[in-house]
Every structure is written in C-alpha cells, then in structure tokens.
C-alpha cells in the first residue's frame, strides 16, 4: 500500500477542516464559486513577486483561503463527493423517518387493543342510541366517517357530547391509570396521524428514483425500497380492514383520505381525554381529602351544607 506524502496529508487535513468549519450549507454555496484559473494566476504571481521582498503585502484572508484550496488535488471532485454523501444520507434518513411513522400508525390502528376498545365503545353506544330501530340498533360495524361527527351528537341538555361520554366511560372502566401521569393515550398521536395524512406514496417513489439516478443501485436503496413496499402493503391492508373505498379519480385509497379522518377524531378524542383525566384527578384528590378530614375539604363541605355562612360572615 502506497504511503501518502506529507503534503497530501496536509491537504486532506485542510479539506476535512474546511467543511465542518464553514458548514455544509456554506460549502454548497461556495462550491460553484471556487477559484478560477485567472484568479489563481494572479494570486500565484503575487506570491512569487513578493517572495523575496521584506515589506511585501500579504494576501488577504479570502485569497489565502482560495489559494490553500487550489493546492488540494482533485478538490472539486472531493468536495462534490462529500456534499453528495451528506445530502444522500439526509434524504435517506428523511424517507426512513417518514416510513417509520407511517408503519407505526398503520400497525397501531390495525393491531392496538386500545384502539379496538375505543371503536367497540363507539359501536356499542351507537347501537344503544338506535335501540328502538331494528335495522340501525343492531349494527355490526360503522364507517369511519362517523368518528369525527361524534362530538356533534349532544345530550338532551347539550352539556355533553357522545364523544365526551365515550372518553369518560373508557377512562373509568378500561384505564387503570386514569387521572395519573402514567395514563397512556389509547389512539395514535394526532401529530403522527397528521404527518401520515400529508404523505404520498408517489412522492416516495419519486425520491427513490432520484436517488437511483444519482447513485445507481446500492444496498441502502434496496433496503429502503423493500421498506417502502412493505409499508404500502400494510396501508392497503389497513384500508381493507376499515372498508375504506377510494374516492372518485383515485386508483387506490390515498393516505390523506384515511388519515385525515383519524387525525380529526384523535385530536377531538385527546382534547376530551385531557379534560376527563383532570376531572378524575380532581375527584380523587377531593375523596382523599374527605377521608383524611383535610381543613380545605371540611371548609368546602360546610359551605355546601350551609351556603348562608358566607353571607353571615360578610355581614358580621
């Protein structure tokens, strides 16, 4: 194996120092503006002419910088490779992160027991409300577009919605940690669902095609391609699982069609979930105070049993 000479090592060291120092973005901007031969000739001429002069004017820092870069063999090719490697890694990482989110959401909606429990409650309460109707009161399922409408179904006094009742029932009958910090949200997070709704499989294919053109076929791309195929298959299975049909003009159900519904429902559910958790926490605190005979609870209890106490106290 040939040994690198000292000059080559110095050049490589300078190159490796250059990129982290100026940053990737600056390197991308500077790369097309690298030193031209005409400029380099002037710089070299100045260096030669001032070599033996005692009071020669030194090069300014920009010229020194360009001159140092010009000494590096194959500078353009090396910088291009480093920039490409970095952008390639960033693009790969971005695609994989999106696919991971998409896979996680799909698996949760299809396999999560808590999701099944929530949907079971929606079906049960829907059948109960339609109990007087033989056709609608004995349904085996429902379409997903009903989910965002649950918040609009109000009680007779309009104080509670069907959604808030379902959330309260779930927390009080199926969640052991209700009212605690360890209470886990039963649905996929709204943020993940929103991200999934903004994705398109066509965009993934375009990104992979562009990467293949830039870097031919590599093992990383093969792995990414396999992950994309498995994610696409998982999503199609999910659409069949929920009996979602493609809209007019669509070849297949889009990510937006399915996940927009779930995003709205999950957001509404989480709002009620937070409120109900706070209510449960407050109830438990008051019950604890009542059992221990806390002064605050005793004072509150006295005010409830004798509301005139406040008025009497103010008059005195």
From TrEMBL:
Any one GO biological process: actin nucleation
Record's GO cellular component terms: actin filament; cytoplasm
Domain of life of the organism encoding this protein: Eukaryota
Keyword Transmembrane helix assigned: yes
GO molecular function: actin filament binding; microtubule binding
Transmembrane segments: 14-32
Family: Belongs to the formin homology family. Cappuccino subfamily.
Listed name of the protein: FH2 domain-containing protein
């Amino acid at each position: 194996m040939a040994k690198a000479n000292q000059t080559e090592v110095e050049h490589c060291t300078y190159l490796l120092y250059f990129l982290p120092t100026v940053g990737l973005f600056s390197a991308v901007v500077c790369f097309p503006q690298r030193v031209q031969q005409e400029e380099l000739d002037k710089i070299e001429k100045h260096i030669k002419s001032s070599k033996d002069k005692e009071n020669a004017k030194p090069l300014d820092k920009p010229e020194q910088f360009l001159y140092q870069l010009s000494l590096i063999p194959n500078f353009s090719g090396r910088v291009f490779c480093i920039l490409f490697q970095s952008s390639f890694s960033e693009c790969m990482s971005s695609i994989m992160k999106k696919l991971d989110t998409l896979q996680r959401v799909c698996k949760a909606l299809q396999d999560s027991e808590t999701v099944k429990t929530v949907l079971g409650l929606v079906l049960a309460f829907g059948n109960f409300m339609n109990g007087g109707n033989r056709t609608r009161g004995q349904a085996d399922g429902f379409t997903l577009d009903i989910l965002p409408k649950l918040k609009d179904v109000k009680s007779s006094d309009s104080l509670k919605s069907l959604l808030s009742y379902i959330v309260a029932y779930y927390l009080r009958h199926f969640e052991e940690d209700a009212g605690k910090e360890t209470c886990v949200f039963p649905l996929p997070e709204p943020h993940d669902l929103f991200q999934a709704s903004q994705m398109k499989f066509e965009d993934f294919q375009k990104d992979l095609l562009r990467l293949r053109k830039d870097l031919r076929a590599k093992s990383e791309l093969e792995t990414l391609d396999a992950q994309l195929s498995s994610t696409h298959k998982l999503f199609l299975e999910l659409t069949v699982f929920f009996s979602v049909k493609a809209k007019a003009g669509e070849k297949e159900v889009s990510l937006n069609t399915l996940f927009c519904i779930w995003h709205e429902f999950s957001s509404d559910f989480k709002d009620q979930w937070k409120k109900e958790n706070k209510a449960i926490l407050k109830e438990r605190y008051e019950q604890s105070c009542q059992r221990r005979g806390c002064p605050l609870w005793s004072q509150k209890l006295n005010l409830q049993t004798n509301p005139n106490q406040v008025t009497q106290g103010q008059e005195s």
